[in-house]
């Protein structure tokens, strides 16, 4: 016969073990999440929301938007044209700097560059000078602060260029800059200051810069032509970026001899002889021109100049409804686009 006390003791122990297991199970089922775990869950949720945030996208094809850029160097209004075509392509970018008294819209209308962009496929950015920076809306290229890297208008326009490249997912190996008159002089300076950003430059009815450091010197150069050392602060032996130049030989605002400043600067930067070729032609609307190319022996064209005979201070081949245009001249917009798109930086 079993000992009743021993049987009772065994039963009591079994009951205690069962109760302990039940209590442990209840604790597990009702236990609240630890604070650290809750914090980690919230952080993961925040990361998920951040990852799903939609970045800015390129404006729709065929749109011509207006916006304002605010960078460390200041604010600048601009217009941006996105050509008709596939939004997936990493498009080249052309920066266009207007002349005095012009606006971004006027310059776009007069040059017809947006229509060329539709045909050839590239973005067009038109920075716009403010009346508060210059009463005539000229780019202040003659001021020393605007003639070097990391300062003034060159720094702001370079920052805007990079902003648009990111915003539109542009092609960083195909970035170009061009302008007319004061905008042409500014384009030459900015291209020289940021050669890692821009691949080539176009100057229409403008100046090469040189040793100009004041408004008085700028006016003298506009009336008489470049000074004795057109390389100036841009570097005596620094080779310029590939450049295309247009100038009317009847220009009474910027003396036509300023086009020679680009040739002199190129010669100073090259120790060897340059191969020069000259072509004489006539535009479909009857305007005669002389086109000259300069290249290193068996190399690519470094400089291309167009002298438009009988034309004044006006964009050759431009639209009649824009300011400072000569509709009878050769098509400067198309020729500049052709010159630019043939050049690509190896990254």
Topology readout:
Layout: H1 4-30, H2 35-51, E1 64-71, E2 74-81, E3 93-97, H3 104-111, H4 113-120, E4 123-128, H5 152-168, E5 175-180, H6 182-193, E6 200-204, H7 215-224, E7 243-248, H8 258-269, E8 274-282, E9 288-296, E10 301-308, E11 315-316, E12 325-326, H9 332-341
Parallel strand pairs: 3-4, 3-5, 5-6, 6-7, 7-10, 11-12
Antiparallel strand pairs: 1-2, 2-4, 8-9, 9-10
Helix pairs in contact: 5-6
Structure characterization notes:
With 347 residues, this protein is an alpha/beta fold. Helices cover 35% and strands 21% of the residues. It is built from 9 helices and 12 strands. It has helices at residues 4-30, 35-51, 104-111, 113-120, 152-168, 182-193, 215-224, 258-269, 332-341; strands at 64-71, 74-81, 93-97, 123-128, 175-180, 200-204, 243-248, 274-282, 288-296, 301-308, 315-316, 325-326. The strands form 2 sheets. Strands 1-2-4-3-5-6-7-10-9-8 form a 10-stranded mixed sheet, sandwiched between helices. It starts with a helix and ends in a 6-residue tail after the last helix. Mean pLDDT is 84; it is low at 1-12, 38-55 and 230-235.
Throw out a few tags for this protein.
347 residues, 10-stranded mixed sheet, alpha/beta, 35% helix, globular, two-stranded parallel sheet, 21% strand
Total helices: the number is 9
Structural class category:
alpha/beta
Q: Any idea what the radius of gyration is?
A: 33 Å
Topology as a string of helices (H) and strands (E): HHEEEHHEHEHEHEHEEEEEH
The helix fraction, in percent, is 25-40%
* Mean of residue pLDDT values: 84
**Shape from CA axes?**
globular
Residue share in β-strands: 15-25%
Low-confidence spans: pLDDT under 50, at least 5 residues?
1-12, 38-55, 230-235
Largest sheet: 10 strands, mixed
Q: What is the terminal-to-terminal distance? A: 97 Å
The tally of strands reads 12
Q: In which order are the strands of the major sheet placed?
A: 1-2-4-3-5-6-7-10-9-8
